[in-house]
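Structure tokens please, single chain.
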Amino acid sequence: MTVLMYGLITGILFGFLLQKGRVIRYDKQLGALRLMDMTIVKFMLSHILVAMVGVYLLKDLGLAKLAIKSTLIGGVTIGGIIFGIGWGLLGYCPGTSVGALAEGRWDALWGILGMLLGGAIYAEVFPFMRETVLTWGDYGKITIPQLLGVNHWFIIPIFIIGGLALFRWFERKGL
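Here you go.
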């Protein structure tokens, strides 16, 4: 099986989970933006926690290799601002807009077209950004365990406990 097939299967599975988790619904997106419904936050955090365990387990077993990107504060800050503005204007983030279109919500097509246009603009301005924005706050290829000088299996349980505590707090608050 080719790498592209793994990507296709993973994408279909992720789309199925997005739909089943009801996170591609506009009311859930709006609730998350207004900090009144944490369904999307709980959905993504649960996936991050499971992936954290899975990725490091596969790495430790020699079945996967990590390809860590450099931590670039300038790029992350500007990208986060653009992402937030797009999410706020459209009401979908990139993954949920594709899922919403697959469910027949044609308004999501504007977001997908915006992503394609944004990608084209980024490709055009990348040489300029490489010399400016992408040099601001370059901390190199670091991870939290590397930063603290400890094994990743000391950090992962802390994140899992923190995530579970956050889930519990959300549930008690009715979020």
